Description:
about 325 residues, alpha+beta, Glutamine Phosphoribosylpyrophosphate, subunit 1, domain 1, 8-stranded mixed beta sheet, 5-stranded mixed beta sheet, globular, binds aspartic acid
Amino acid sequence: MPTTTAQPLRKPAPTIISSGNGRAALPAGVRILAKGGSALEAVEACARIVEADPKDDTVGLGGLPNVLGVVELDASIVDGTTHTAGSVAALTGFLHPITVARAVMEQLPHVMLVGAGAARFAREIGAEEADLLTPDSRKHWIERLRLAKHTPASIATAHALGPVVLEMVKERGTVNFIAIDKRGNVASAVTTSGWGFKYPGRVGDSPIIGAGHYSDTRYGGAACTGFGELAMRNVTTKTAVDRLARGESAAEVAEEAIADANALVGHGSRLNIVVLAANGEHAAATTKRGVQYAYQSVGMTRAAVRPRAIVRRRSR
Ligand code: ASP
């Protein structure tokens, strides 16, 4: 009778993957993982670096404002081992929404706080306050207003903001991170200022657990950027992790997520996803050429960048 030798399950090298704009933050996260730090700590640390970078106009400080010139932040964090999550939406005036989201997860019996309540809680925990509208992002806003035949004064009293938003919204971006640590725990974090010049109070996918991102240590994690409305309508990242659970590869899961988004009508056509499976395999897909993702494992001296698989929308 043939004998089988039980193979010891090899843990993958601790790794972090991110949207392309997260690349510069990856070495800091990998240093945490190399010292035995948790995936949760690593993704928060990476997100904080991008939040504090005024040059990234899609996240935190220097993020593009809403149509009224207010920078409204969405952020959330998921611990894939305890299945706990924390989230803030439409938060204004704080430098590190991701840390506020983590505090919601760890200190409150809630998952999500929005607007004034989120800001109140951020103050209670001593989160750092900041004026997020930099001279550059303000200039960009005023220029976009001008193209839509508005000024800061006229937009403040405009009655129907919807049509102005339609004209102004052209820019998006967000940063996301998924990590797997030495113990095999998976966690993810997403932080964003959302669509540039969005309708005030508009909340995207980034703070919606299971839409903007999701992690489950048993299977892996997934995170989206792009038209968040698509990820919300398809619950894209929970669906992706369910597919990992069924044994599909990271590459298959990433491409199916984009194909699902392509099948939706309305709310734009761009979506990007990164997927990290619990075995350390990772992949990413997009609807649009030229979108990359970044990754770094312990042992790599620097982060690497890879193109994403492109899944085109069929013309209908
Ligand atoms: N997903 C983000 C949102 O909808 C924006 C982006 O990633 O481009 O707010």
